[in-house]
Design brief:
Radical SAM protein, S-adenosyl-L-methionine, alpha/beta, Aldolase_TIM, iron-sulfur, TIM Barrel, catalytic activity
Length: 362
């Protein structure tokens, strides 16, 4: 288990044969694990999840099989449904994100729709990349799965067009952008993001003679400023396209008619593309915690013993002293309010992205 920005992530099945060159598995030492393998039983995994120190019933957003495999792969899908049905049977109403680029079948959507309590969101990863050295498994398959999932009426689960990774010169032509805007019509919401280009991924690109997308690597996802503007313009001119968001949790929350659980409303420049009704929802849920409340929330987390709250404004809380991002995300979801590490500042209008492709502030 790992706490990530979009949720507490359960990954007890690991291994994926899809071989996307940019896969985050590189950074976890799992690239060579291509056969999905369960590390424990589903019942044990769910029990570990609900007893985890970061888990809060009905509050903690969850992800399942998002880091080391695809949840709809043969040999993985059965595990997915056992876990979902276990969690749902406990009456839990947490958000749960299922990120996939694989084949969804009619019986899968019926089984998903039978879940009565969980707020399920299917995020269909689509890039439009046609270079099979980088993405051997065609994006068109995810598009077909998304259409099938969204066609079901009525349905409790929601669908998101997960447009990623966008890479200049690879999948950002006018035709790519127009196709994406058209496909988004088949989802409840859309979100776009760039490439995690970490050192391990760059090493793989170099070793295999793949065209390197950037000269350097970055801790955050890379979305150059000019690319973002072109994406926003493409959607603005596409009649009937899905509502587009910069952040995953914003799209998920919108699809369910709820305020953003990551509290992005404090970073108001993120919200300039949001519908008015969503802004109103997020504004109504925007409560600013005190430094004392933040400190009290982590009193039972040994890894957060060094937490120092430097400042709290309407935008975000600035903290330091945390060993990694996991307790920070716990706080962020506990209060639905942005928690920023002072060592990795969020600069105005960059939207929490890497500095590559953005003008440095004066």
């Amino acid at each position: 288990m790992e706490y990530r920005k979009s949720g507490l992530s359960l990954n007890h099945v690991q291994g994926c044969p899809l071989d996307c060159a940019y896969c985050i598995r590189h950074t976890y030492g799992l690239w060579d694990s291509r056969k999905p393998t369960a590390l424990m039983s589903d019942a044990e995994a769910v029990e570990l999840l609900v007893r985890h120190r970061y888990f809060r019933p009905h509050t903690t957003p969850l992800q399942i099989f998002n880091r080391a495999t695809d949840p709809l792969l043969p040999g993985v899908k059965d595990h997915l449904f056992v876990c979902l049905e276990d969690l749902d049977g406990r009456g839990l109403t947490n958000h749960i994100l299922i990120i996939t680029r694989f084949i969804l079948k009619p019986e899968d959507r019926e089984r998903l729709n039978a879940l009565a309590n969980l707020k399920v969101t299917l995020l269909f990863t689509y890039s439009g990349i046609t270079d099979k050295r980088i993405e051997p498994f065609a994006s068109s398959i995810a598009a077909v799965s998304m259409k099938l999932a969204s066609e079901l009426r009525p349905r409790r689960y929601r669908t998101v067009f997960y447009w990623r990774p966008l890479v200049p010169g690879l999948n950002d032509s006018p035709e790519h952008l127009a196709t994406a805007a058209e496909l988004s019509k088949h989802a409840d919401a859309a979100v776009f993001t760039g490439l995690f280009y970490r050192g391990e991924i760059a090493d793989y690109y170099k070793a295999n003679g793949l065209p390197e997308p950037y000269e350097g690597t970055a801790r955050r996802k890379i979305v150059p400023e000019t690319l973002e503007q072109r994406v926003l313009e493409a959607f603005a001119h596409a009649e009937g396209s899905a509502v587009l968001f910069r952040k995953t949790s914003c799209a998920v929350a919108y699809a369910h008619g709820l305020p953003d659980y990551n509290g992005h409303y404090g970073i108001r420049e993120l919200c300039d593309i949001c519908p008015v009704r969503q802004l109103q929802l997020c504004a109504g849920a925007h409560n600013i915690p005190t430094a004392r409340q933040l400190q009290e929330a982590v009193v039972d987390l040994p890894e957060a013993a060094g937490l120092m709250v430097l400042d709290v404004t309407e935008r975000a809380a600035q903290v330091e002293g945390l060993p990694d991002e996991q307790p920070r995300y716990f706080l962020q979801h506990r209060f639905a309010f942005q928690i920023h590490d002072a060592g990795h500042p969020h600069l105005l209008n960059r939207h929490g992205r890497a500095e590559i492709g953005w003008e440095q502030p004066a």
